């Protein structure tokens, strides 16, 4: 493990201030001034090991002093939040607190004001363009590389990388406390936390801890209004088992295969079946499911754009303008794939001019990678997040696709919601101000496919307007 960590950490140095920041006026690859103020920085979350989380804070293009502040972490195995900032606006549930209750909605992953221009990589720095459906039109966005080891977050002592669901969640709570101490002008802003995919296990736990701190009178007191989770993992068996019903519903598997699984896999662990007939049926199921894109069943099947540990087939390209070597470049996908933007992000994030503009500390992260695929220690110690969803929704918070298991009464039955006179998705509202909604045409990261619809959903919800 020490040899792997050496790739991430170059050297150790004395403990810095709890919060440091850089005001970024311009970014390499983008022509002109940024559309809104960008601040980056580090927050110490583990003094003993010198672990610091890196963040991007993008002010609202509306009224930064009163518009909501949304904290966002992304999912995956230590995936950088830069993926969310540049690429996402997916599909997720949300909550909003007013008085004793939270308003809940399923919405899209947030997106920042800039996107990578998708064009063949020619050795030069990838270009950026303005994103017209950025959520910064209505909210301040606080993106955090979490857990330690994701993106530009780092630890001086390798022991600081040994975290898990619970410890990473508690570090996020500490991050927020320290960040708001340094940004008291935003304490009165409505505040939300959000995450997608595997982050769906973390966010409900963080939301519960924030609410407990508020009840205990711990300062600074956040103006916490709710939380969002996009296509979230729960750690529960429903994460895998629901794939079967979904695949059947959208026509990926036949009625016969569905019926076989339902009959012979009852009580079985779908990931590790012991029943022979069930195992054979699930093998067939996985084969059929694997024919398409797991993130977007209507899209092209493309290669995964993130380097694996000890990846051998490395294209060691060199950026012409700054001579920055990339040692862990993933395989190149077709430019027709959505993943091509992820590929370009390696060249942008590892460019020396980019790192200088973002204020990346020398001697911390040697090379930015989109995700660390299990090459750093991590303990999955939240077996199921559903109880945290239940705890916070009973206080008035929220939930998502498994909302029916909470047994809340239906307040507004399943219906379409509209944009430009057309159905943009479907929604249902439950008691305790819980709303579930979908985005028509969206995938796991729906904003990549339906940014206009996702922005419409979010902007209405955050403004207390009905879908």
Automatic annotation (TrEMBL):
Record's keyword annotation contains Metal-binding: no
Listed name of the protein: Serine carboxypeptidase
Keyword Metal-binding carried by entry: no
Gene Ontology molecular-function annotations: acyltransferase activity, transferring groups other than amino-acyl groups; serine-type carboxypeptidase activity
Naturally occurring in which organism (per UniProt): Zizania palustris (Northern wild rice)
PROSITE patterns with a match to the protein in the record: CARBOXYPEPT_SER_HIS (PS00560)
InterPro entries, per database record: Peptidase_S10 (IPR001563), Ser_caboxypep_his_AS (IPR033124)
Alphabetized Pfam families for the sequence: Peptidase_S10
Entry-linked PANTHER family: CARBOXYPEPTIDASE, SERINE PROTEASE FAMILY S10 SERINE CARBOXYPEPTIDASE
Keyword terms, alphabetized: Glycoprotein, Signal
Gene Ontology biological process terms in this record: proteolysis; secondary metabolic process
Signal peptide positions on this chain: 1-18
Record lineage: Eukaryota, Viridiplantae, Streptophyta, Embryophyta, Tracheophyta
